[in-house]
Amino acid sequence: MHSANHWGGSLEIANNGDSTAEEYDRSRNLDWDKASINHQQQQQYNNYDQYSQRHNLDETQQSWLLGPPEKKKKKHVDLGCIVCSRKAFKYTIYGIIIAFLVIALPTIIAKTLPKHKTRPSPPDNYTIALHKALLFFNAQKSGKLPKSNGIPWRGDSGLKDGSKLTDVKGGLIGGYYDAGDNTKFHFPMSFAMTMLSWSVIEYEHKYRAIGEYDHVTDLIKWGTDYLLRTFNSTATKIDKIYSQVGGSLNNSRTPDDHYCWQRPEDMTYERPVQTANSGPDLAGEMAAALAAASIVFRDNTQYSRKLVKGAETLFAFARDFGKRTSYCRGNPYIEPFYNSTNYFDEFMWGSAWLYYATGNKTYISLATNPGLSKNSKAFFMIPDLSVLSWDNKLPAAMLLLTRMRIFLNPGYPYEEMLSSYHNVTSLTMCSYLQRYQVFNFTKGGLIQLNHGRGQSLQYVANAAFLASLFVDYMNATGVPGWNCGPTYISLDVLRRFATSQMNYILGDNPLKMSYVVGYGNKFPRHVHHRGASIPSGKTKYSCTGGWKWRDTSNPNPHNITGAMVGGPDKFDRFKDARKNFSYTEPTLAGNAGLVAALVSLTSSGGYGVDKNTIFSAVPPLYPMSPPPPPPWKP
Known about the structure:
One of its GO terms (biological process) is cellulose catabolic process. This is Endoglucanase. Keywords: Carbohydrate metabolism, Cellulose degradation, Glycosidase, Hydrolase, Membrane, Polysaccharide degradation, Transmembrane, Transmembrane helix. With 634 residues, this protein is mainly α. The protein is built from 20 helices and nine strands. The strands form four sheets. The protein has a three-stranded antiparallel sheet. Strands 1-2 form a two-stranded antiparallel sheet.
């Protein structure tokens, strides 16, 4: 049958009777869930039902009438190169907004606010004191001073020293004045340079951290440059050393460094030069100073080699069997002031430093020779020999060699002697502890290493350095303590000894006085020192004209910053009087120990020592096999 097509064109509709209608109804009921479509769709289908019933349409015709089925709403978002679900896209947008609020916004605000630099942690007391202690060496310089010397009341001086010597080009200009007078004593000066170099080798990282590395190395070089002029440093063999410039005779009434009270810039009197034609002690100490400095200046190859060459020349002079008389024997300009009591300690000290500087096994063989320890009385356990000073290097030399055993463990043939040095060093540390009553202590807690005599603090500072260094060596190997007889002692106990002694020096004492000039609010104002006690300026005072400045009760016009004075007596009493030099006179050797102790204890730059630098020139050690035991005999 044909029916009219309301949309144009002809439309043929086939009528297959009831079966077709039933199939349609069944199909319609299966394909549509009226509860899941919207109202508009429902109305559309109701209209469609009425029409299809009225016109009797089959399924194909119905599809023409309804058109294509409505597409479901997309559940994904097409971003071009990425397709994601709407839910994920929504959460992503939320996440970006939250991240902006939490991270980006505070960052933007922080960057727009005014910037305030974070202040570094303040330096500890030891660092503050160390800055000052180094300045003492600037105040003691002799010669033509650089503009950067930093001591406004000091100027050029001693420019005619050694000018009459025909074998020294340019004379003996430079170096350091020893103490409150204007004498250049080469023996304690050398010891001071060795101590400064040792402290730099062990604690270079600390000096760098506090900005003093260039300063301290300049001070060392000022000293070693001068020492190289006191002998023929270009030769391999020498027959003399110039041992002192200036000085005085006891009870002299002629112008000299003690009789006169003048600034070094104003000296006009004769300054004699002392010559040592033998001197194993002086030469051994000078060799140690140059060898230790060669390690400090290892990056300056030419200068370091020059120092090593000079050290070897000096040590050969020291070891010359025909020149074994002390450098000061019978010399009235030296013996009353810096008398050397032995020279085998300088042999051990100098040979240890030369081994570290050169790696030459000849030196370590000497340092560990049983004859050397016997002649130096290293194993006699005499309390005074455990006290480090410009005269006695035994405790320092044995600690320096103990270092080799701790870190290198060279074994045979050195182990036996190194082990003995290690044992004695451990006992030395025990002797510093008050519980063992080897040394007396004042009521205020100061150890009396020189039995209550004057100038006590230099020995205390040296002991504090050795104790602190021993602790650092042990800590570097993870050993927490050592034995004093049957008692195990924690390293903290020894560290507390070192800090207590330095704290006493810095003001933790019954008088609440700092014995380092310029440190703290209360310190000595009448220091026994010519340059600091006389006003600087155009007025020059004669030899005796300066006595009024020596004798006045007024404070010094200049504070000699960083100078550690002689210190209190055995009753913790101190007389701040210029004429009482045992209380108020600083020394070069004393301040070197002070500097070493302070840098070992400061926490600036971290803790611990540089384990390896000192061994830079030491070749790998391969222990030899010990000799076989003698054949058995019944």
